């Protein structure tokens, strides 16, 4: 219903820009690893939130999670996790960070973890990471 917006998403060579970030493995399979607008660049490293969310979502006591980048004076952006726990007090920020630290490279480990009752969603049910980024934008302000 928005032909101008649709036209903007086509490259000159006719390819449609979906906003998905993918990789092709040695067997030629395509794997979606995230969304371009969700990519976090922390200390010069690319961080794909989906990788961290997948790890967090597998933790006992987690209903769901969202990982975002928040402006940081030293790193450009810092990784921040927002988690919906099964029950209040069942998880700790330190415990989540320690688990992630044991599985992933240091630059992917969230600098902060927040617990919420629910994640903000749009009418289609998708998590609104832009709302989370706005809520936490001053987190690392000087």
Characterise the protein shown here:
With 142 residues, the protein is an alpha+beta fold. The protein has one domain (36-135): GMP Synthetase, Chain A, domain 3 (2-Layer Sandwich), CATH 3.30.300.30. The chain is built from four helices and seven strands; from the N terminus they run H-E-E-E-E-H-E-E-H-E-H. It has a three-stranded mixed beta sheet, sandwiched between helices. A two-stranded antiparallel ribbon has the order 1-2. Strands 3-4 form a two-stranded antiparallel sheet. Strand 6, helix 3 and strand 7 (112-115) form a beta-alpha-beta unit. The longest helix is centred in the C-terminal third of the chain and has 11 residues, at 93-103. The model has no long low-confidence stretch (mean pLDDT 90).
Distance between the ends? 43 Å
Our count of helices gives 4
Shape field: globular
Mean pLDDT: 90
Q: How large is the share of residues in beta strands? A: 25-35%
Total individual domains: 1
Q: Identify the strand order in the major beta sheet.
A: 5-6-7
User: Helix proportion of residues, in percent?
Assistant: 10-25%
Evaluate the radius of gyration: 17 Å
Q: Helix and strand succession? A: HEEEEHEEHEH
The total count of strands amounts to 7
CATH topology: GMP Synthetase, Chain A, domain 3
Oligomer category: single chain
List keywords for this structure.
142 residues; alpha+beta; GMP Synthetase, Chain A, domain 3; two-stranded antiparallel ribbon
